[in-house]
Amino acid sequence: MSDQLRETNQQIVRGYIDGINAWDFDGMREIMAPDFVFEQMFAPPGMQKRYEGRDTLLEFQQSLTSLIITENLHDLELDTLASDPGVVIATYRSDMELSDPDKSYTNDYICRFVVRDGLITHFQEYFDGCRLVTSFGGTVTEPQIG
């Protein structure tokens, strides 16, 4: 039973990632709990770190479609915690196609999803915020250490 649950939960997360790549908001809605929470743990200044509620996150994601043509999330690897088959760890890369052809954005991600009763309840995303800032025209200043 535990192996089957692990595989099912990984497939749910895979479906969510596929939904992002296709901008399939209806498909994502079907596998997100109504009280879904999304956290960008290392979001740079100016970006919201936490979204509460499925509809709140979907509205945010839909707003990105004017900026991002496709997220192109790839090289997806999934695993679950040995102690909890409902916690899915995902690693992947992005190579986004942006509406501004003069800009490009790639990054690497480590994410933690929590799946309960067939729905994603929590999604934590870890990425390199400096790469995000500089890709969209911002700057990062090297600190003076020592």
Features:
alpha+beta; Nuclear Transport Factor 2, Chain: A; 7-stranded mixed beta sheet; 4 helices; 7 strands
Radius of gyration: 16 Å
Helical percentage: 25-40%
Shape: globular
Biggest β-sheet description: 7 strands, mixed
Oligomer: single chain
Supply the helix-strand structural class: alpha+beta
Strand residues, percent: 35-45%
Proper CATH architecture: Roll
* CATH class categorisation: Alpha Beta
Uncertain regions spanning at least 5 consecutive residues: none
Average pLDDT across residues?
A: 94
Q: Output the CATH topology.
A: Nuclear Transport Factor 2, Chain: A
How many strands?
7
Q: Helices and strands, in N-to-C order?
A: HHEEHEEEEEH
Total individual domains: 1
Taking the alpha carbons of the first and last residues, their distance comes to 55 Å
**What is the count of DSSP helices, taking H or I runs of 4+ residues?**
4
